[in-house]
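Quick illustration for those who missed Monday's session on complexes.
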Amino acid sequence: MVLNALKFTMKTKASERFQPFNITKKWKKWMAVSCSHGDHIDPEARDAVLSFQSRFRPDTTIHLGDFVDMAAARGGAMSDPNAADRAASVADDLAAGVDFLQELKPQHILYGNHEDRLFKLANSPNALAAHAATIVIQEIEATAKKLKARTYEYDIRSNYTLGGHKFLHGYMFNMAAIRDHAETFGNCIMGHLHRVGQEPGRTLQSATAYCVGMLMKFDASYAKTRRATLAWSQGFGYGYYTDTQITVNLCERKPNNPWMLPL
Ligand SMILES: [Fe+2]
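Prediction with fe (ii) ion bound:
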């Protein structure tokens, strides 16, 4: 008798633990990528995310920023006549960045610190540089308009919110930066750091930041001497959302590993 009662209790508890939800009716799908960096994009990474996207069929796709590199517009490249990236092609970078956006067809395009170089330069006292930067911005905005994508400026107060989580490019840059973003923004999904990871914040209200990694090549020239680049990884984020909830999954590819796509 006692045994039967125990069995019944265990059965009830197990069934309570398993509570499937109906994804098809209530939940929608999202996907986010970041840091493709124009013609620095890794063709294998581009193929991997586009192939996952075609099978996962997200309702909402987000590019979290740095879809162009604009090395020649870097402050140091502008001021130092001997800087190597002063000669980096703006046309090749822009063409590759726009091509990838047209393939990905995101509904939301966030500007990162690399696009922000253009907005800073557009206000430069150097009239030729300001004119060139303005033309590049116009081409990017025309692409976004064609895609019917909304753009977001690189500003700490500007972000896209989905399922109660903020989507942003990222601002701080150090080994504790994922945690710093959780503590600054609350629950958020970001790029910027070029490494896949997730960290909780040390806050009374629970908050986690997720970094989706990058899509650029591991052997970019500016990765040659910076130790932090040894921690870089490629990847993307995806999951399901409602108006108030979101699930977050991260797919990571480390250097020399194959892409192991979840679908
Ligand atoms: Fe980046």
